[in-house]
């Protein structure tokens, strides 16, 4: 089954789900398990940054340092990073239970970012089209 990479394609950015080398996307799986109302909140944020190019409200989107950014549809967090070619890659997601970003979640996002960049450089990230 082909992977569904694109979460939203806007005029300014394309938002994509990150896939591990095993072909799993924790962020997409988390998103699919949300109720309809929470999925709409996530998509509104994706649409805003995808079409406008920024979200000014830090309560909705924030730089978490180390090139990691958080989409913040309450009470959820979806971590991401920016990539060349006007892409935002959504790495992992979790239910916010405390004020501070858990270091373990940020570390997961950093590891995903490093893996993505390495696999892009090697040309092994995206599946080849079947003929």
Number of strands: 6
Query: Between the first and last Cα atoms, what is the distance in angstroms?
Result: 14 Å
Oligomeric organization of the protein chains: single chain
Bin the strand percentage: 25-35%
The total tally of domains equals: 1
CATH topology: YaeB-like fold
Overall residue-averaged pLDDT value: 94
Counting DSSP H or I runs of 4 or more residues, the number of helices is 3
Order of helices and strands: EEHHEEEEH
Classification by helices and strands: alpha+beta
Q: CATH homologous superfamily, by name?
A: RelE-like
Outline the biggest β-sheet: 6 strands, mixed
| Low-pLDDT segments | none
- Indicate the CATH architecture: 2-Layer Sandwich
